[in-house]
C-alpha cells in the first residue's frame, strides 16, 4: 500500500514554507500593538466608559447578592465559619473559643469586645445582631439601674440567705450564668448547706470577682454547726465530714492513735493524701477538744 506520509522534495519544501507562514502569523498576533491600530473618538471613548461603569455596577450588585444575610444570633456560639462571614480574624475567633472552653459566658457587647479584642468599627457593624437570653437582658438592666442609683452593699440583715437562694436568684449576679448557678446549688446540696461563705471558693469556675459580687447580696445566715472533736470522733463520724473520704478518715484515726492525739489542725498535713489546702474549711466541722 502507498504511504500517505511519503513526500518528495518539492512537497517537503511546501510544508516547510507553510509552517514558516503560520509561525509568522502567530508572531504578528502576539507582538503587534493592535491597541494603537484603531483609535477611538472622544464620543466613542465616553460610550465605552459608560458601558464599563454599568458592568462594574452589575458586578457589585452580584457580589452583594452572594453575601450571606445575617440574622440575630447569640455571640457565645459563633463558629469558625460564622466568625469568618462576620469579618472576625482567626485570632479573634480563637480568643472567643478559648474563653468559652472555660465554661464562661459573654453576657454583653462589652464582654464580647473584651474577650475577642475586635475593633470598635467592626463591633458597631455586628453588635446590633447580638441576641442574648431574656435573663441576661433582665440582669443587665438591673445592673444598669443599680449603677445609676449607686446602691450600696447590703448589710448582713439585708442580704439574702445563701442556703435558700434559687438558680433564678443567682443568675442575677454578674458573672453567674445557668451552669454556674447549678454548680453552686449542687455543691450546697453535697455539703447539706453551706456553713460559711468561705466554701464558695470550692465551686469550680467561680472566680474571686464573681464571689465578691455574690457575697455582696447573699451570705450564710445560719453558721451554727455541731462540731465534732477530732480526738475522739469515730470512723463513721469522720467519714461524714464533707471533705473526708472513708479511707482518709481511717488514716486520721491511725495518725491520731500513733501520736496519742492531735494538738493542731496543721499536723493533719503530714497524713498522706490529706487536703491541706482545705484546713480552714475543715475547721468549720471539727474541734481539737
Give structural notes.
- The chain has 289 residues and is mainly α.
- It has helices at 9-31, 42-66, 80-86, 90-101, 109-116, 120-126, 134-149, 167-170, 178-191, 208-217, 235-239, 246-259, 279-282, and strands at residues 160-161, 218-219, 228-229, 286-287.
- It contains 13 helices and four strands.
- The strands form two sheets. Strands 1-2 form a two-stranded parallel sheet. Strands 3-4 form a two-stranded parallel ribbon.
Task: Provide key terms for this protein.
single chain, about 290 residues, mainly alpha, two-stranded parallel ribbon, 13 helices, about 50% helix, about 5% strand, elongated
List the topology elements.
Layout: H1 9-31, H2 42-66, H3 80-86, H4 90-101, H5 109-116, H6 120-126, H7 134-149, E1 160-161, H8 167-170, H9 178-191, H10 208-217, E2 218-219, E3 228-229, H11 235-239, H12 246-259, H13 279-282, E4 286-287
Parallel strand pairs: 1-2, 3-4
Amino acid at each position: 500500500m502507498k504511504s500517505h506520509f511519503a513526500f518528495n522534495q518539492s512537497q517537503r519544501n511546501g510544508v516547510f514554507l507553510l509552517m514558516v507562514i503560520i509561525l509568522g502569523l502567530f508572531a504578528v498576533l502576539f507582538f503587534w500593538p493592535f491597541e494603537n491600530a484603531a483609535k477611538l473618538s472622544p464620543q466613542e471613548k465616553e460610550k465605552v466608559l459608560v458601558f464599563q461603569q454599568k458592568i462594574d455596577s452589575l458586578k457589585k450588585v452580584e457580589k452583594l447578592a452572594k453575601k450571606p444575610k445575617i440574622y440575630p444570633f447569640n455571640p457565645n456560639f459563633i463558629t469558625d465559619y460564622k466568625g469568618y462571614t462576620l469579618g472576625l480574624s482567626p485570632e479573634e475567633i480563637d480568643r472567643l473559643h478559648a474563653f468559652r472552653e472555660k465554661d464562661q459566658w459573654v453576657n454583653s457587647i462589652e464582654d464580647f469586645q473584651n474577650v475577642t479584642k475586635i475593633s470598635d468599627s467592626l463591633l458597631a457593624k455586628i453588635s446590633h445582631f447580638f441576641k442574648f437570653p431574656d435573663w441576661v437582658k433582665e440582669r443587665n438592666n438591673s445592673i444598669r439601674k443599680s449603677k445609676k442609683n449607686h446602691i450600696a452593699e447590703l448589710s448582713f440583715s439585708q442580704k439574702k440567705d445563701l442556703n435558700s437562694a434559687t438558680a433564678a436568684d443567682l443568675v442575677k449576679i454578674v458573672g453567674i450564668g445557668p451552669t454556674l448557678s447549678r454548680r453552686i446549688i449542687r455543691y450546697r446540696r453535697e455539703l447539706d448547706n453551706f456553713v460559711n461563705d468561705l466554701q464558695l471558693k470550692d465551686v469550680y469556675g467561680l472566680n474571686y470577682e464573681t464571689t465578691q459580687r455574690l457575697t455582696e447580696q447573699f451570705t450564710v445566715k445560719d453558721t451554727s454547726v455541731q462540731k465534732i472533736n477530732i480526738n475522739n470522733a469515730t470512723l463513721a463520724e469522720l467519714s461524714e465530714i464533707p471533705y473526708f473520704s472513708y479511707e482518709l478518715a481511717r488514716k486520721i484515726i491511725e495518725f491520731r492513735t500513733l501520736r496519742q492525739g492531735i494538738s493542731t489542725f496543721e499536723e493533719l498535713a503530714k497524713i498522706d493524701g490529706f487536703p491541706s489546702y482545705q484546713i480552714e474549711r475543715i475547721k468549720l466541722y471539727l474541734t481539737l477538744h
